[in-house]
């Protein structure tokens, strides 16, 4: 019985050993092997990156500027159109006031042109504006009157010749005194010559009188003539001295008037400069209160419907800098932030433009600030093209737009990801 069972088992083993797999089994094993190989190959070839998603907010190198209107203000005139290009210091909107804004702007433009060192130009300015009835309002009016009075003083000095007329009069008097001095000099010289002749004759007469050649009466007459001529000579010398004193006085007065004129001009120029600065300051105050003025070059867009005679308040105009470039600020979660590197690709999905319809924008991680706050790092994203999306659709970028930024980190294949989990589980044990 045991021998029989042994023969049966041997026959069964021989049958199994000699039996060949059928064709479908051989193909099945081959296919399974090929599939396993393909899976390993695909697991090695197929790579995809890790993505770190974060919120992004768009901003610019030069932020836009919003111009508000005070509550209860009435618009007098809108000087620009919506979405128009404006330049720095350009007047945009005029609000209602008790001044004529055209007069204020005219005066402001003219004051900017005044060269204070040129008195003639300042006086010509006074001539031109003397007859103008400017409506400048209570903020500017008093300072304009003070400035006009200073100009009037300068006008009197230069045009009415308040100093020069005195100088001219003194110079004419000086000419007369010099002429009189020459006259007295001539008389003095003549008197001195006659005095010498009369003195010589008197000495001769005294000799003749001592010898009784001439009478006492004749001798007394000669003496009287001598002393009379001597008195005339002294009078002429005294008059000449007085003339010299008068000439000196006139010369000093002329010099003083000229000095006073120069000092008066310098003082008046200083007064004009002070009053001009005060006037400009009051004009600046008026413009600050009753005008919207562009502080930068850019594009002006209306936030509200601006119309003449309309009462309104709040933000009225926003000015976007011309030629400004946008960039994004991203709040990157701390988890996984170690994978980030400068230059990594960033995909931006804007909330204003659904990405399934408009596509996405692309950029690069340009800066990564090393200090984190409680939960995030701050990164800066530079756009590769902020005008067109991946669907080649036009995107109108605006400041403070928000969206989602997906930062693409290093690619890893499927095998790495699978074995990474096994390795982590093994190390954990």
Automatic annotation (TrEMBL):
The keyword Transmembrane applies. One of its GO terms (cellular component) is membrane. InterPro entries: MFP. It is a single-pass membrane protein. It comes from the Bacteria. The chain crosses the membrane at residues 27-46. Keywords: Membrane, Transmembrane, Transmembrane helix. It is found in: Membrane. This is Efflux RND transporter periplasmic adaptor subunit. It comes from Chryseobacterium muglaense.
